Amino acid sequence: MLIRRLSNEELYKAVDLRIKCWNNDYRGVIPPNVMDREEELEFLISWINEKCDDIRRIYGVFDGEKFAGFVGASIAQKEDSDKGVELNYLFVKQEYRERGLGIKLIKAIVDEFKVYGFRELIVYNWHEVPSNKYYLYLGGKVKKQVIQSLKGQDTLVDVFVWDLVDIVKTLNNMLYARDVQHGGLHVKKKFDESVIITTECSDGDFDYVCNGLFKHNVMKTEGVLRKPGIDINLYLKTSDEETIGAILCDTFNYCLYIDVMWINERYRGKGYGRLLITEAERIARAYGCVFAHTCTFSYQSPWFYKKCGYEVFSILDEYPDGIKQYFLKKRF
After folding, report:
1. How far is CA 180 from CA 60, 94, 199, 269, in A?
2. Number of independent structural domains in the chain
3. What are the residue boundaries of the N-acetyltransferase domain, all occurrences included (predicted)?
4. Of 66, 109, 280, 283, which cross-links 73 as Cys (Cβ 3.0–4.6 Å)?
């Protein structure tokens, strides 16, 4: 199953599914045939493409070429949450239900909006429809109830709320509780009489594997992997000690690897990036590093590294939407 943004040309799939679900799942709760297909499609295209301060997303889920469902979200109204995201749409085709697609679609939304600093998830849902049990199952709390009217018929609506951190944990736990065949991430397979393959692990298991690999690499390089073995982390700060950027680097095999490079948008274009990278390179050379390397995406800053003397030695162009990953190096 692939979850991705729907193009304008695909939005009719979302509209058709929504109308079908309203007429079937909401039968007896709201009046039948309340939506006009062309009006709904026109609204959805306008809604997702409107230039405004809102953040709006519509993701579809596909089983190969088959459309299976979709989710839509935007910034919640202030009256519902000061820092919330509202789940505007969540519909899955009947034949694809009970496969964890709802969990995955909601997760696609909350994972993105959580990065933007939102703290709550809001959902408006008809009180008497079956999907209400689903939101209760996900741990939603009814914040308030309102009356909405469709074609003169008043219907009770529950307004659910979740803490984003809590719902992310809940969704992840649900995915790892389901096996892969039922839309989850849990694996437990017998390889032979004495070995199994499983996703079940502890922090100790993770550390054991990482330490085992690290020990192997150090031994095979006769210790060179640990040379010079220092982290070079340089931060940009204002006179008020506000962090406005940084370059975070590892050193191994006598090379400098630039892992993270970021500067606050307000301070870009002032030469601070070049200042950071030059200082990191100076320290690395002083500790014996002979070259530096990094990777960056086409939507990030390959041009910046080229200006700083880095050359592209490989490009990975298999990502969707034309995204490319550039691998760059610079000899000292």
Report:
1. 20, 20, 11, 47
2. 2
3. 1-163, 196-332
4. 109
* C-alpha to C-alpha distance for 92 and 261, rounded to whole angstroms: 40
Domain boundary among 139, 157, 189: 189
Which two three-digit tokens encode residue 321?
């939407």
In a domain, 196, yes or no: no
pLDDT in tens, 230-243: 999 999 999 999 99
Range of the domain at 275: 231-331
Quote the CA–CA distance of 113 and 110 in Å, as a whole number. 5
**Residue 191 CA, distance from chain mean position:** 33
Residues 147 and 25 in one domain: yes
* Digit-coded pLDDT (tens) for 145-179: 999 888 778 889 999 999 999 999 999 999 999 88
Q: Report pLDDT digits (tens) over 28-76.
A: 888 888 888 999 999 999 999 998 889 999 999 999 999 999 999 999 9
Same domain, 52 and 160: yes
**d(C-alpha 168, C-alpha 263), whole Å:** 28
Specify whether 150 is located in the same domain as 294. Answer: no
